[in-house]
Amino acid sequence: MNTDIMTETIIGQIIPKANNYLAVPDGQGERRIIKNNAVRSYERSFCLQCVKYKNKRIGTQFRLFAEVWQRSARFDLDNSLKTLLDCLQYVNAITDDNLCVEIVARKRIDPVKPRVKFAIVEICEEQSLFDLHEEYSQKVATL
Q1: Closest CA to 40 of 85, 71, 8, 86
Q2: How much is the CA Rg of the chain, to the nearest whole Å?
């Protein structure tokens, strides 16, 4: 990752969303989905370790860059990214994970020190050259 982008590393095996949620009765004959203890434990650990992005409340579209070191190759990268986005929302780094418009991610294996390194880059609206040219032309015409 580019060194001028703020990165953060969270130590520990990221818990993929798939197969770590439980369907339980809601008391009205229906079932609701809840997180299991592994997911809750990872969220607490993420919250304690996340310092740079905690409470940033990024509320604009953003790109997520991530390198995920898994304990083994059996873990799916896509499910890990869903957990990462949920955790970022949980610590108020982002206001909503649906603002993520691009993800650049790489899966790596480290059986000794699983972790996730990430960066969030806000996307600023840029004026097109055509708009700038029209704005300039209007200013010149009023002189």
Answers
A1: 86
A2: 20
Cα–Cα distances in Å, from 74 out to 9, 123, 138? 21, 33, 60
Q: Where exactly are the structural domains of the chain?
A: 8-141
- pLDDT per position as a tens digit, 111-123: 999 999 999 999 8
Structure tokens at 124: 């600023």
What CATH number should be reported for the domain whose range is 8-141? 3.30.1330.70
Asked whether 8 and 118 are in contact (CB, 8 A), the reply is yes
Q: Which residue has the higher pLDDT, 55 or 40?
A: 55
**How far apart, in whole angstroms, are the C-alpha atoms of residue 100 and residue 68?**
18
Confidence (pTM): 0.76
The structure tokens listed for 29 are: 């004959």
**Could you tell me which of 84, 87, 92, 90 has the C-alpha nearest to residue 55?**
92
The residue behind tokens 């799916």 is 76
Q: Could you tell me which of 53, 75, 68 has the C-alpha nearest to residue 5?
A: 53
Q: What is the DSSP letter of 117?
A: E
